[in-house]
Amino acid sequence: MRVLALMFVLCAVTASAAPDCEDPAEAQELVAYEPPVELDVLIEEEAVAPPKQELTVSPRPRVRPCKFRQIEAGRERMRQRGAVCGDWTILGENRKPFAGKFLGCGIAEPVRLRMVSDVFLSQLALMDCETAITLKTWLENTAKPAFADRGGGLKGLRLAGHYACKTQNNQPRARISEHARGRAIDISSFILMDGTVITVLDGWEDEETSDVLRELHTGACGLFGTVLGPDADRYHKGHFHFDTARRRSGAVCR
């Protein structure tokens, strides 16, 4: 019994001495405990003690490396900031799954966005994370660079549409729109830091803004599954339609 008690004391001391956050480079492999020679002498002196039994000592689990704790702390800060889709630059809130009044409408994992890559949205926009991340990629790779030398840069997007349980172009007997699946967003205007507003409707043919709007349109092609602008049809004269639909025939860019 004295042997077991001494072993428990040694294990407790070892456990209390372990650091709360162990760095991988400094972590050492734990080895099975081997009793000192003095314990063998004590065992021999106990004539009435039961035969010595081999004890299996399990090594203490290693403390999680600091980097994993830092990652978890970072995720918590993201949640407090309002980050969604696992991206600290996409701000909004997670919503519960829902279905619409028509077959095919609804979003399994919806998010409602208010800001993407420091660009605010004129209204809270409901979509899925794939569309949100694709929008972020387009903003960072195309839209923000395109306005870098205009009006102090891009400040916000004025939206004409996001989630809506409807058919394509609101036409009767048409197919369900990608808006109804949370995979689409419509952008009608671009707001710059100095207050300038560039609309798709008026700016598409304007000499001062035509080039930049066409750059935005071209930069979305291939990134999104569907890109429609003023030249596509009469339904898109005043806005860009972007969606993340995937087709066997490839992306649509008009």
Overview of this structure, please?
- By secondary structure, the protein is an alpha+beta fold.
- The protein folds into two domains: 2-66, no CATH class; 84-253, no CATH class.
- The chain contains six helices and twelve strands.
- The strands form two sheets. Strands 1, 2, 5, 6, 7, 8, 9, 10, 11 and 12 form a ten-stranded mixed β-sheet that branches.
- The longest helix has 18 residues, at 129-146.
- The radius of gyration is 31 Å and the shape is globular.
- The chain starts with a helix and ends with a strand.
Write a concise keyword list for the protein shown above.
6 helices, alpha+beta, disordered N terminus, 254 residues, single chain, 24% strand, 12 strands, 2 domains, 10-stranded mixed β-sheet
The major beta sheet can be summarized as: 10 strands, mixed
Report Rg.
31 Å
- Overall, the morphology is globular
Separation of termini? 84 Å
Fraction of residues in H or I helices: 25-40%
Proportion of strand residues = 15-25%
**Series of secondary-structure elements, N-terminal to C-terminal:** HHHEEEEEEHEEEHHEEE
Number of helices: 6
- Strand-pairing-aware structural class: alpha+beta
Low-confidence runs of at least 5 consecutive residues = 1-6, 8-20, 22-49
Taking all residues together, what is the mean pLDDT? 81
Number-wise, the strands total: 12
How many independent structural domains? 2
